[in-house]
Structure formats: structure tokens, C-alpha cells
Amino acid sequence: MNIEETLKLKIQSALKGYNLSLELSDIIIENTKNKEHGDYATNVALKSASRLGKKPRDFALELVEVIDKEGIEKIEVAGPGFINFFLKKDTINSAISMIIAKGDDYGRGEKKNKKINVEFVSANPTGDLHLGHARIAAVGDSICRVYDFAGYDVDREYYLNNCGNQVATLAMSLNIRYHQLFGEKVELPEDSYHAHDIIDIATEFKNTYGDKYLDNSKETLDFMMEYGIEKEFEKIKRDLESFRTSFDIYTKESDVRKDNHVQDVLKNKFAKYTYVLDGATFLKTTDFLDDKDRPVVKSDGQFTYLMPDIAYHLDKLSRGYDLLVDVLGADHHGYINRMKSALMMQGYSKDVLEVELVQIVRLIKDGKEMKMSKRTGAGITLRELCEDVGVDAVRYFFVSRAASSHLDFDLDLATEKSSSNPVYYAQYAHARLCNVLEKSSDIEIDLSAKNLKEPAEVELIKCLLDFPRLVETSAANREPNLIATYIQRLAGFVHAFYSECRVIDRDNLDVTSSRLALVKACQIVLKNALTLIGVSAPKKM
RNA sequence: GCGCCAAUAGCUCAACUGGAUAGAGUAUCUGACUUCGAAUCAGAGGGUUGAGGGUUCGAUUCCUUCUUGGCGCGCCA
After folding, report:
1. Virtual CA dihedral for A334, A337, A343, A349, nearest 10 degrees?
2. Is any atom of nucleic acid chain B found less than 7 Å from the CB of residue A479?
3. How far is the CA of A405 from the C1' of B8 (A)?
4. Spatial distance between the Cα atoms of A453 and A219, rounded to a whole number of angstroms
5. Chain A, 251-280: which CBs lie within 7 Å of strand B?
6. What's the rounded mean pLDDT across residues A259-278?
7. Residues A389/A381, Cβ–Cβ less than 8 Å
8. Which of A351, A272, A271 minimizes the C-alpha distance to A317?
9. To which H or E segment does residue A276 belong?
10. Nearest nucleotide, C1' to the C-alpha of A404?
11. What are phi and psi of A448, to 5 degrees?
């Protein structure tokens, strides 16, 4: 049981005599920003005084009388009616042994028995991943890590669009590049993929098959499409892997479409919500959340992207998830109400799908915005980014910003100043702690940590105690940036402690062994937090 | 025109989801290595939280009207 829980219980039992029926989760314990306000504070008196017809301050004073004071130095009422707790040093210090005992599991939440599917990246296999995908990958992967650590059952999924116009264009581009390699004077049309990787794949194709496929037949194009998709997708997976992002499930659009499944879904489940106009079939999404009805079958008989996508989301739900999360670029926001409407047609709540929008990243080079485009191949790829700036720095950069924040990525600044990336501040703190532990390996650690009393030490311990709650909040709101902010704060306290309190002092082993316990606890928490956002915790730098 | 997202220190971003004196980094200035790693620390300056109105004990946070910017508004995905 941690300190916050204990305080909540004390408050709850103090409230028993009043007719308030407050859940434990309604009682909010806050960290104080100011030492004069004690270690922790609660606003219950402010919140509920009016329901009892009392003045907040008076009610707070009443409560203080009946709260169990064990482990507490003193309780004060302040301001409009805050109740401030000043804890005994032992109470705070005792947290350290608990953290060390839990180790890698410190901060892990209890099992929630909630199955969540997070789909992210899902980029078309028509070219390299770029800057925007990097942000989505960093945010999506971190969300999954936080979910998992907080106690949710999470599956990471990638939806591979291997049907439709995009991949047909890929085949066409590949075919033309292939012909060009034989000296033919054919130009790439404007709307094909111009990036260099298509030439690489065409070259590989030529090296494998020679001139066997110069006939421009439909069979050849189909074969090239298969070939191109496979090569592109292999590349994507490899790049994501080196970005420390992996998936549990890959679903291909072709599998969703298999055996006329999409036709069946449309006919059997959506017939009453469709109508035909100008030869196309429309879905009445306006009956639910949308502002326009959406075409699901084009007048040429082909599905639009939406219909297989709907079938795909229904498939995910049929696998037993309590919640679907799609992490999408903000330019897809129009998509949300369409999909939710379709799911609602099948009786699902609109909340069964949550879409996490990640704002567009603008690439700045030489002080100017550089438009990224898969078609022209302009921009910077995830791979180049990792090579130039480093995986840790890139991930940290993206995760430390709220997904909703619009941000500019200045390439020159990122490469040139990568050494001033805040990630190194945290990693350095971790390396310093490891160094101390290594140098003192012969000294016994005092798990009771009874000799800690300096302000820098107390601040640090209280920061360590925040971690579990932070994990919960971060997961519940899908905000991994909270973890990054926490890491900065913790690293700050660690550095301050390091300079103020010398740890290893062989003439004073009592204090040394207590401080070593604190050092160990900090090292654990820092590492756990960094792992949550996919950043390494090095022992040396 | 309609919709979604945003606007906080010179710059890049926070603010525990409605709490007490709005905080970090960076940049500028001043100090600190004979000691566990100076990729660090201590300190200074820097704010009408885009503007107005509302809700209440209390608003950067919620509602509303503007302003500015980004992104959408296809039988593309």
C-alpha cells in the first residue's frame, strides 16, 4: 500500500459520519507545490462542504479532528479549506524498501481485465516511412507500453493496405522503372511514386528475373505488385524494428476481403443503412454522427476504402476487445465520425472506438517549410532520422510533446544540436546513479533508509512515490508525454541531490548506506520510466 | 462557407484534468570541479495564459463570441 492510498483511506473513514457517499476515487490527493503546504493535500472539504451546508474551512477543521494521525506529523487547514498533510520522515523513507523490492515492477498497475487493441502506423506499403510516421510510431508504441504496464491487455496491430489504387500505382511505377533499366524511353507519370527506393526495388527485380517480365501484361503487373508490396513492407517492418516498435498482429486488407467477406458484411449487416445514387452505394452515416453520407461502393462496382475498413473494424471487435484505439495523423480526422457511425449501426457504443489524433509534423529545413510527399519522395525518412539524430533522441522528442500539439521539426537544429536533447539529461542522471552503485558495490545498502533527512532527499523520494499514479493517469488518458515530463522532473531532482548530497563517504557509512538505498530506488524508477517510452537507460554514456 | 485541432516567458514546451505564488529547457547574465562523471548544480531577469463575456469559494483548464494559424470537407486512402 502506498502513501497516497493510505491517506485516502484515512480520509474516507473520517468521512464516514457524514452523508456523502464518496468513492475512494473521488478523494483526490495532490502533491503540494509549496513546502509550506506540507507533503500532500486534499480538497475534499472544498468539494463537498456545500453539499452539507457547511463552510469549506469549518468542515475541513472538523475533519482534521477525526482523521487518524498515525504516520503523520501534523495536519493543517489552509487557504479556503485545503487540508495539508505533513508526514513523518519514517513514513516517507519507508517507501524506498518497497521500490527496491518491486524493482522492474515498481509502478506496474493492477490487472484491469480490459482488452485493448491499438492500431497505429498502418502506412501503405508504397514507400519509406517518413517524419510523420515517426511521430505516430513513437506515440503509438509508447501508448501501448504504458497501457501494458498499467495493467491493460493490449495488442498492437498494423493494418496493411495491399489492395486498391495505392498499390496499383506502386506496380505501375515499378514496371516503368523496370523498363527504364532496359534503356526504354518511358517517363513516370506525374501521379506515380518518384522516390528512389522504387528504382532500388526495380533493380533488385531485374537482377532476380532478368528481362522475363517486359510484357506489360496484367499478370506481370499483378506479380510486380506482390513483389513491390513485399519488399516495401519488409523495409517498413525493419525500420520500425530499429525504432523499437513492434506489432503483435498484422492484418492484410486482402485477408479481410477474402471469400467475398466485405460483400457479405455490406449485404447482411448494412443493407438497411444504404441507398444507391448515381450508380454508387451510399451509407447513411448521417443517421448517426456524420455530416455527409459516405459512398461505400463506387459506380464502377469497386469498394471505396471505407467499406473494407468497416469490415476490418468489425473483425477486430469480434476478436473480443473492449476498446479499439486507432492512432491516426490529424489529417484523417474526418474519418472518425464515419467509422464510429458505421460501428453504431451494428449496435456498438460510439466509445468502443477511440481515435488518438497525432498532429501533423512540419519539416523545417534551411528555415523553410519542406512539404513531405510520398509521391515525389520529398522529406526525410524514419531511417535517415534515426541515423542522423538517434533513436533515443527522436523518440524522446516526439513523446515529450502532447500528441495534440502542432509542432515544427527543424532538421538542422535536430542534427546539429542533438547533443542538447533533453533525453541526455535523463540518461546522464541514470548513468551517474549506476556509476555510484558500481563504485560502492562493497557497501551494504540500508533498506530502511533511516538516515535520509536532507530536503533534496525528501523531495526525491516524494517524486519516486508519484510514479505509480502517473502511470495510471498516463494510460487512462493515453498521454505518454506525461511520462516524459515526469522523467525530466525526476532527473532534475536526481541531479540536484547528486550535487548537494555526496553519497559515498567511507567515514560515515550510516548515511552512505541509506543514500545508496535512495540511489538504487531512483535508478529503478528512472529506468522503468524510460522503458515506458522506449528510450534506453544506459549505465555509461 | 462548414467542421476538427491549436494559441501560455524572446524561442521550444509543461502545468498532476477545476486548486494555493502558472513551471522547465533554451537563449542572456552571475557564481560552483583537489571529492561518487561539469552532458551537472546554485542564483538573476523574463507573463494581462491571443481578446472579450460567462459558470464558482477558485479558471491556463469548463461554456460562449471573436481574432490568428494548421488540417480536413473526393465515387482518393
Report:
1. 140
2. yes
3. 13
4. 77
5. 277-280
6. 95
7. no
8. A351
9. strand A274-277
10. B5
11. -70, -20
Say whether the CB atom of A402 is under 7 angstroms from strand B: yes
Question: How are beta strands A361-365 and A280-283 bridged, if at all?
Answer: unpaired
- Report d(CA A6, CA A343) in Å as an integer: 42
For residue A62, the tally of other CB atoms under 10 A from its CB is 17
- Quick one: DSSP state of residue A132? H
The pLDDT of residue A418 is 63
- Decide: CB of A47 under 7 A of nucleic strand B: yes
Tell me which DSSP letter residue A451 carries.
T
| Region(s) of chain A under CATH 1.10.730.10 | 421-532
> Which nt is closest to the CA of A504, judged by C1'?
B36
Torsion on CA atoms A396, A398, A400, A403, rounded to nearest 10: -160
Give the residue carrying C-alpha cell 531532482. A493
Express each pLDDT in A295-337 by its tens digit: 999 999 999 999 999 999 999 999 999 999 999 999 999 999 9
pLDDT of residue A419: 67
- What's the distance, Cα to Cα, between the start and end of chain A in Å? 36
- Hey, is A92 helix, strand or coil? helix
Residues 426-465 of A with CB under 7 A from strand B: 428, 431-432, 435-436, 439
Quickly list H helices, A191-334: 196-209, 218-242, 253-257, 261-269, 306-318
- Cell triple for A479: 498521454
Q: Which nucleotide is nearest to A38 (CA to C1')?
A: B20
Nearest-CA residue relative to C1' of B42: A496
A129, amino acid identity:
L
Give the closest residue to B15 (Cα–C1′): A485
**Identity (one letter) of the amino acid at A416?**
E
For domain A3-87, say whether CATH 3.40.50.920 is its number.
no
Task: Take residue A406 and report the three cell numbers written for it.
Answer: 502542432
Which burial class, exposed, middle or buried, applies to A55 when counting CB atoms under 10 A from its CB (0-12, 13-18, 19+)? middle
Whether A506 CB is under 7 Å from strand B = no
> Do the Cβ atoms of A358 and A329 come closer than 8 Å?
yes
A333 touches strand B (CB under 7 A): yes
Strand B positions with any atom < 7 Å from protein CB? Answer: 2-7, 12-17, 19-21, 23-27, 35-42, 57-58, 69-77
Cα torsion A393, A399, A404, A405 to 10°: value is -30
The architecture that CATH gives domain A421-532 is Orthogonal Bundle (1.10)
CA dihedral A427, A433, A435, A438 (to 10 degrees): -140
Global pTM reads: 0.94
pLDDT tens-digit readout, A9-37:
898 888 887 877 777 777 888 888 887 88
Residue found by looking up cell 491487455 in the block: A153
Which regions of chain A carry the CATH code 3.30.1360.70?
3-87
Cell digits for A484? 516524459
Report residue A337 CA to chain centroid gap. 22
